[in-house]
Amino acid sequence: MSGIPVKQSLARRIWLQRYLMILTLPAVLWMIVFHYIPMYGIIIAFQEYTPYQGFLHSPWIGLANFNELFADPTFRESVFNTFKISLAKLIFGFPAPLLLALLLNELVFKRFKRVVQSLTYLPYFVSWVLVVGFMYTLLDPDTGAVAKLLVKTGLIGDEVMLMGSAHSFLTLVVVTEIWKNVGWNSIIYLAAIAGIDPQMYEAAVMDGASRFRRVWHITLPAIKPTVLILLILSIGGLVNSNFDQMYLMQNSMTQDAANVLSVYSYKMGLVSGRFSYGTAIGLFQSLVAFLLMYLANYSSRKLTQESLF
Amino acid sequence: MLMTRSRGGAAFDLFNALLMIALCVCTLYPFYNIVITSFNDPTDAARGGITLWPRVFSIENYKVVFRNDSMFHAFVVTVARTLIGSAAAVLFTGAFAYGISKSELVGRKLFLMMAIVTMYFSGGIIPYYLVVAKYLHLKGHFPVYIIPNLFNVFNAIIMLTFFRALPKEMEESAKIDGANELRIFFLLVLPVSKPVLATITLYNAVFHWNSWYDAMLFGGEKLLTLQQILMQIISSNSNVSMIASQLGYGSVTASSLKLATMVITTLPIVFSYPFVQKYFVQGVMIGSVKG
Asked: Where do the ABC transmembrane type-1 domain residues begin and end (chain A) (predicted)?
């Protein structure tokens, strides 16, 4: 590093950095292959893709796939299901980690708090395959321990096949989503709460503020930016209902209820081999996701001056 | 702590503590129930009612699994992809993060932007499938588990944040001694980056251990993973006996396979968890400060 900046040619600068380039460029190439070429591949939504002709030479058919899509009743059902499931997850699943973080923060013994925290993270690290396996085992009407408990407490009737009923599908989706992610999602709120100046609480106690008032007037306003950012992200994710969960929870009885955009795109594109049609469904999903994220971000900026971008 | 405790406050504390205990029970019980049921005699377990303790203790379920060749093969494939895939991904992503952490790097802004765009936009699953299967011809070959998972933007950003915070003097003195960046990265930077390497390795290991989707898309019979076998057993659960007879087992055997495999795939995570969970949380903290 010389003190005087010397103008060097680009080629020379790159040559001098050749070792840094050796470290960086493989990942850049990787991104082109595994992200940018697939992005380019979206054009097959406007083509009649055949494997033989590939991305570059398949015949163009304009918006034909989209015209078919909007007339397709299964597609309409999948849009409806996607929003229904995501809204239920947003309404019940979004506040859950916030509530957990607030309750954890009120625990008197800090050691106990740490233990509860660590235990509630655990389900985040097991796969949805396992979670659905747990469900089939625990909710089996003949042998499942949880199903038996629910029957005993009168919450469900005897012999109800919880996993095989479109009726209980939505409830199970929301409950398992919360079970798996509530602990992990609370970390970010706990970190935000930990960053609040303790003097604020001390001053509030001096003024005789009750516990509930301290949470309402200090904790919640302090973590509002975090809550809003996460809310924007969740709204942007409204059309991306969890593929793993939906795909794995579907069976012959629940496949209509589990028909969401990502599952339908997968089934059309890769199971039925209609690559272009499946891609059109995926593109529709991405565009709506982007639009929702933009709208959420815009309204948040207008209303509260907090925004993601 | 300067807190005035009222009687109402104490009642709330008690209620809150009980609620948290209930939450922990709800979190852990499914794991516990699967373990005790897997150690129960399979024929007896079909009667149901196993809630707190195995009724007829037996390791029959595990014998079934360990006698099963395709299960053993899947276990080897899963362990191999977890070990090789995690190590390769950490080095590959780390190398990129290190390069990007140097402000003098030509094209740094462009590379960073390319990485960030991939967080918001993607081609979706079908073009991705076509690239991997039809253009790269990776389908059905073991590297299909490794190469497409070499890089991850979120992990790159966590590592970038870490590398940026390293003291500059150490690298500069090595440079004066004539070391090039490759040597500096491998011999100097990586050894002092153990905390972040541990975090990212664990993220990758969990990802590889849990993944079934790429096995379903690209794996084929030779490359079945444990999660995928489990998924096949589970997704045909509504008619266990049918799939069991297809595979040439009785329905008891299919259920044994399911239970024991669930336990075998969960236990590495549950047992390593107390030792490694602080590393998991570290990653979230670095990531959230950045984001």
From this structure: 79-296
